[in-house]
Amino acid sequence: xxxxxxxxxxxxxxxxxxxxxxxxxxxxxxxxxxxxxxxxxxxxxxxxxxxxxxxxxxxxxxxxxxxxxxxxxxxxxxxxxxxxxxxxxxxxxxxxxxxxxxxxxxxxxxxxxxxxxxxxxxxxxxxxxxxxxxxxxxxxxxxxxxxxxxxxxxxxxxxxxxxxxxxxxxxxxxxxxxxxxxxxxxxxxxxxxxxxxxxxxxxxxxxxxxxxxxxxxxxxxxxxxxxxxxxxxxxxxxxxxxxxxxxxxxxxxxxxxxxxxxxxxxxxxxxxxxxxxxxxxxxxxxxxxxxxxxxxxxxxxxxxxxxxxxxxxxxxxxxxxxxxxxxxxxxxxxxxxxxxxxxxxxxxxxxxx
Amino acid sequence: xxxxxxxxxxxxxxxxxxxxxxxxxxxxxxxxxxxxxxxxxxxxxxxxxxxxxxxxxxxxxxxxxxxxxxxxxxxxxxxxxxxxxxxxxxxxxxxxxxxxxxxxxxxxxxxxxxxxxxxxxxxxxxxxxxxxxxxxxxxxxxxxxxxxxxxxxxxxxxxxxxxxxxxxxxxxxxxxxxxxxxxxxxxxxxxxxxxxxxxxxxxxxxxxxxxxxxxxxxxxxxxxxxxxxxxxxxxxxxxxxxxxxxxxxxxxxxxxxxxxxxxxxxxxxxxxxxxxxxxxxxxxxxxxxxxxxxxxxxxxxxxxxxxxxxxxxxxxxxxxxxxxxxxxxxxxxxxxxxxxxxxxxxxxxxxxx
Lengths: 353, 353
What we know:
Chains A, B: Its EC number is 4.3.1.12. Chains A, B: Pfam families: OCD_Mu_crystall. Two copies of one chain form a homodimer. Chain A has two domains: 6-115 and 306-346, ornithine cyclodeaminase, domain 1; 121-303, Rossmann fold (3-Layer(aba) Sandwich). Chain A has eleven helices and 16 strands. The first copy, chain A, has helices at residues 15-25, 27-43, 114-132, 149-160, 172-182, 195-198, 244-249, 257-263, 278-282, 304-318, 339-346, and strands at 9-13, 49-50, 54-58, 61-69, 73-81, 95-101, 107-112, 139-143, 164-168, 188-191, 204-207, 228-231, 251-254, 276-277, 296-299, 325-328. In chain A, strands 1, 2, 3, 4, 5, 6, 7 and 16 form an eight-stranded mixed beta sheet that branches. Chain A has an eight-stranded parallel beta sheet with strand order 10-9-8-11-12-15-13-14. In chain A, α3 packs across α4. The model of chain A has no long low-confidence stretch (mean pLDDT 92). At the A-B interface, α1, β3, β4, β5 and β6 of A face α1, β3, β4, β5 and β6 of B.
């Protein structure tokens, strides 16, 4: 085959490459880097095009495109949500994403994002907790010990200095899996048999369960003062984890209100219930935690800017490294007007394998 | 590396694969197949989710996502438009697309679409001309001899039986390129030095020029009765090719009115000017050409369903063929809850090259 020019080639980070890159960098260091990258983009929040996600719903799931741009680069993520997939041994959520150059419209990166979304979700949680949790928080309750749990625990250790993680899941097998994966990583792991037990002494309570219907993982009387709740699992209409009464006495912090009002815990509240945008806390435009006894809540649903930050970080991380392959993805004729001639001339070159 | 399971692999059609597939099938046969595939999907137009494209504009271009779904499969195209790219030797338009299974949300195909868009645009034009052009049309004028011209000529030959193509471009070098590429393919090629000369005796007049501003490639007195105008080049706000007076006396046929009113030739007309949806002609719900003397106009802007049809056709065409490579794009842990464990275990396997 004739060699495509440099412009025709798009670096692709496969699942295998992403795993090796994460192991090469180290999971905790990757979490620190991603939290920094996301925080840097939250600081310049007004620079971004913020489009609602473009969703295609079916009876059993949803496929979404999540685009954003800072005027220099453009990124989008393709992500599906199909809770019934696990019954066939498939992932509930899979994702991939693309970063492109706004000046030319040419893609500059294609990456798997199932793993990268898990990383950026945990990094965002830890970044928010750094700004909102009580000072000197050292204990986190982790309620829901599924695919996101280990990432949350290690991000909170790396970014916030969490020393003890108290695990609880309705399925003890999930807790065992999570405890085994976290063993020997410098965290004190306590496996609990009730949610009440898990939150004992915790300054950070992370909920990340997979219930599709309105659920009440935390009731009002379970949650005392002086805690930060990191609610990760409620992320679509009809899917919530917290009792409404907790929301009513918490300081609520969100990513992008128009999206969170539809998808987050606050879908249980009036549409004008006051919430604070996290980026305004980070830029100092508004206060985060007001006092040590306050209950703060990060009502996390995941926003396109976090994916953009993560794609940009991976793109930078690839420079000089070998964790990608080039894809011949962009037709690049010598004469832009001669696309047809390029096809015909392909015949003259020897065949690819 | 440990081998990913079948679900983790997404077939990828590179630019080189697409060129070889087109040459393997034959360009005219590919045009016939694509025109049939697009027509079949136009026949079931109401089955589709029709979303407006999601555009991200900058000073010098646009990046768009064009999704659609028929409830069984989901497709989207990424496409940019950057007229100034040619100055740097880059393509004005590049594209790629993804086809996915609605039941699982898993992608089943990733394909280059710069070439495929050129093919589907020409196939759509020819399909429309089959329904709208005068019977026994044998001569086409091709005004604008850029990247789309050869595809238009061969699609009109394959689908409509065109025997003579009369070429005109403001740049004689473009006409020379087009004539050379079309030589020996069974068409009579006539190179013309004026647009007036090109349309002499033509029953189909195709305009496909790259002017960004309101242009008048065809004036009213140039166009007599009994012709079909296939207007391809006007495809964004501010970019038109026909004088308004032609539109006022033509029967106007469009793909998706909400999009065409913004992007097509009819942006020059009142927002309630009557137009006919092409799919309704094909299903027999409404009349196409009313008489031999009528001027019909296909105001083509390109719609997501055409890309969907093209992606589906390529996906079918790949079965049993070798024109793709598998990409390890979807994380597929043995236990869907153990994404973290999958990453850690990647360390145990031998490294990829």
